[in-house]
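REQUEST FORM: STRUCTURE PREDICTION
Request ID: SP-0412
Submitted by: Lab K.M.
Chain count: 1
Length (residues): 344
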Amino acid sequence: MENNKKRAVAMWLVAGVVMIIIQTLLGGVTRLTGSGLSITKWNPLFGILPPLNAQQWNDAFDHYKQIGQFKYMNSTYTLSDFKSIFFWEWLHRFWARMLGIVFAVGFVYFLVKKYFDAKMIKPFIILFLLGGLQGLIGWVMVASGLNDSHLYVDHIKLALHFVSAMILACYTLWFALQLLIPEEKRIANKKLRSFTLVIILLLFVQLTYGAFMAGLKAAMAAPTWPTINGMWWPDGLMARSFLNDKIAVHFMHRGIAYILLTLLIFWFFTARRKAGTSLLNTTKWWPFLLVLLQVTLGIVTVLCAPMMVLGKFGTFEVLAELHQLVAMFLLMSLVVNLYVVKSD
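STATUS: Completed
RESULT:
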């Protein structure tokens, strides 16, 4: 494939990664504003349009009134209040549809123009399957809260939705890197590559616990630092559930953050000692700087948790979104370095 064609396809894929990141941020806003259960039906084709008249708005509101979130938390909502939360969930789903259209139209265009070679077809099939799976997981997550007993979606399904989005973003970015980065700009260092992979896997665990924190609204359970409500080791920690208990989840999220910070500092100085290309000399700085920023944001976000107001978007919510954004940047920066440093 000619270089110009490869670069065009790569830029299209990178645009897809950016759209996935924006989609994830919109999901965060949807969660933080309590909007995620406002649309109670999954209509992949015709759901692109919001209600267009008073009857449709009243029907949508009536469906929302049937679930526990309205009955036990938002029973005072007017139609105007409902429209405000409906907007964010609709925008989240609308952007997901636009993402699918960008990929589908781009695929057809490049296929017709013969920009693809045979070895690219399989990765594209995987890419579209991952995208479809992500949409399905999203609906399963929403459905977990559409009942009479839950106020929010299940936090474990929320984590699965978030992590699957990150897998999709990583796969898309990796595909783009294969087209963008010439082989001569990569270096062979098996130990550094293995070290990078271990950190990425641990980061995925951390992202999962970050989603648990968000889904359980656990920041409010311990809005203190450096201790957790005055304790380094919370009372009865080992008897708590590390999947469902807010304090245990909080403890894990903080602990893994400290481990990642230590590992990435060590990784950075290890990478500095290795003879590399000019590309690695640049990219090795990204995870190092981002993890410092991420830990700082995490601390400030936790300390600002008492400022959280359900249904409102203020200081805490802005910090939470920035924390999520930098986490995604950190993951993408490590994926770039994983590609730049090959095994042999």
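NOTES: The first strand starts at residue 187 and ends at 188.
Reviewed by: T.R.
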